[in-house]
Design goal:
Structural class of chain A: alpha+beta
Radius of gyration of chain A: 18 Å
Shape of chain A: globular
CATH topology of the largest domain in chain A: Jelly Rolls
CATH architecture of the largest domain in chain A: Sandwich
Oligomer: homodimer
Number of helices of chain A: 11
Order of helices and strands of chain A: HHHHEEEEEEHEEHHHHHH
Largest sheet of chain A: 4 strands, antiparallel
Strand order of the largest sheet of chain A: 1-8-3-6
Largest interface: A-B, 42 and 42 residues
Chain lengths: 229, 229
DNA sequence: AATACTCCTTAATCATGATTAAGAAGTTTA
DNA sequence: TAAACTTCTTAATCATGATTAAGGAGTATT
C-alpha cells in the first residue's frame, strides 16, 4: 500500500503522471493573460483537448473570487450551494457540526481541486457543509446556471467534469480503504509523510479532525515518534 | 443527521426523490423488451432525456453478463479493470487485502449502481480491488472502448456519467462524515436501520468489514440491543 | 505592555472495541 | 450420513485512543 493513499494531492498526483512538468512549472502559461485563468487552462488540458476559442468561451462563464483566511465560501443551513469552485491558489476545508457539536472536517480543497457541497448542489437542498478558507484563497466560481449554459455550448465540459468526479471517487475509495485498515497512529504518520508541505500550512487540530482523532492524540503520537528517532 | 446518511441505497434514494414510483414498480417497462435493458432505461431517464433511438444505440454497446455467488468479476493484481458495470439485479462487494492480510470491504454494489475499480480503470493500472458477487448477479458491462465510441456518438452519455459520479461523491461524503462522528455501536445500528432488507442478504461479517469493525464486536452490539428491547 | 486568543502539550483516568480462544448451529460436499 | 465449511456467538483479557484538566508558548488586539 503506497504512501500516496492518504495524499490530499490525489488529483495532482494523477496530473503528474500525465505531464510531470506541470506542477514543477506552474507559471509556464502566464505570459498570455492572467495567471488564474492559465492555471485552469493547464488543468483542463490534462483531461480534454480544448482550443483557444473554446477556452475563451469557458472563461466567460467563470467568476473570479478571493476569500481571505477564515472567511466562509458557503455556510451550512443559511444557503443552498449553487456553484462548483476551482481553487487556483490557497486552501479551504469542508466541515460540518455533528450531533455532539463537534466540527468534523470531511475534505480539504487545495490548488487545482474542484470543490462543492455536492449534496446541496445536486439536490438543491440547503448546504450541510461549511466551506471555509484556511488561507487566503483565489477561486474560480462556475455557477450551476453557467455550467448548464456552458455545457450546451461546449459538450466536452461534461466529459471534463465526468473525469474530475471519477478522480475524486478514486481519492475517496483510497481514503476509506486507509481509514478501515489503519490504526490512528498509522493514519497520522502516513498522512504527514504523504503531505509534508501541507501539514505546515494547516493547524494540527484540523488534521486530527480530518483523520477522525483528537488533537490530544495527535500530540501524543508526535511526541512518541520524536523520542523514537 | 438523518438515517439515510449510511444508506447504501444512496443512489436509489435520490432517484426516488425525482420519481417515487420507480423503485416501487421496477417492472413497469418490461413489456417491450428484456427486463435487464429496461431496468437501465428507467435509470437513465432519471438523469438525462434520451430518445428510443438513442437508447437503442446505447444498448448496442452493452454486454449482458451474469456471475454467480462467490464468482469474481475482477481479481486484483491479475488484471486491469477495463469496464464500468451496471448492476441490474444482485449484489457485489468491492474489497481488498490490507498489509495485515485482512479483507476490507470498501463498497457494496447493488441494483441500479454503476461500479468499477475506478483507479484501475482511469489510470490503466492493475486492479487493487476484488469485485465479487455476494448473490447471483446480473450486470451490464460497458467497456472503456465501448464507452469512448458511445460518448462520441451520444455526448449526453458523458453528462449521465458526470451526474452518476457526483451522486457517488455525495454518498462518500456522507459515509466519511458518519464514520468520523459515530461510535462503532452507532455505526452498526444506524446501518441496519437504514438498510434493513440488505442486511438479510449479506453475511454479518461483511457488514462488520464495511463498517470497519470486527464480527465479534457486531455480535456483541447485537446481543446488547436484543436485551435492551 | 497587557490582555485575549489560538494552538499545542502533557498526564491521569476511563471506555470502546480488538484479540484470542472455544464452541455451536447451519449449510455444503463427499 | 458423515465430514468439512461457513457463519455467528460468548467471554476473558488487553490496547488503542477518548476524555478531562491544567498549563504553556506564540500571536493578535487594545
Amino acid at each position: 500500500m503506497s504512501l500516496d493513499l492518504l495524499s490530499i494531492y490525489e488529483h495532482a498526483t494523477f496530473l503528474i503522471s500525465i505531464k510531470k512538468s506541470f506542477l514543477q512549472k506552474p507559471y509556464f502559461y502566464t505570459s498570455r493573460s492572467s495567471q488564474m485563468h492559465q492555471n485552469l487552462v493547464a488543468y483542463i488540458h490534462r483531461y480534454v483537448e480544448m482550443s483557444d476559442t473554446e477556452i475563451e468561451v469557458f472563461n466567460r462563464y467563470l467568476i473570479k473570487r478571493k476569500i481571505s483566511k477564515r472567511e466562509h465560501l458557503i455556510e451550512a443551513q443559511k444557503e443552498t450551494c449553487t456553484a462548483r469552485y476551482y481553487i487556483v491558489k490557497g486552501c479551504v476545508r469542508l466541515y460540518y457540526f455533528d450531533e455532539k457539536g463537534n466540527e468534523q472536517i470531511i475534505h480539504f480543497g487545495i490548488d487545482n481541486w474542484w470543490i462543492s457541497d455536492y449534496e446541496s448542489l445536486v439536490n438543491q437542498l440547503p448546504a450541510k457543509l461549511h466551506i471555509q478558507a484556511i488561507e487566503d484563497t483565489e477561486l474560480l466560481e462556475l455557477t450551476t446556471e453557467a455550467f448548464e449554459q456552458l455545457s450546451k455550448k461546449l459538450p466536452k465540459v461534461e466529459r471534463l467534469f465526468r473525469i474530475i468526479m471519477e478522480k475524486t471517487t478514486v481519492a475517496f475509495h483510497n481514503r476509506i480503504a486507509y481509514m478501515l485498515s489503519s490504526s490512528g497512529e498509522e493514519l497520522y504518520t502516513t498522512f504527514i509523510n504523504a503531505n509534508p508541505g501541507f501539514c505546515q500550512r494547516v493547524p494540527q487540530y484540523m488534521i486530527a479532525s480530518y483523520l477522525g482523532m483528537t488533537p490530544e492524540f495527535v500530540s501524543k503520537v508526535r511526541s512518541r515518534t520524536k523520542n523514537n528517532s
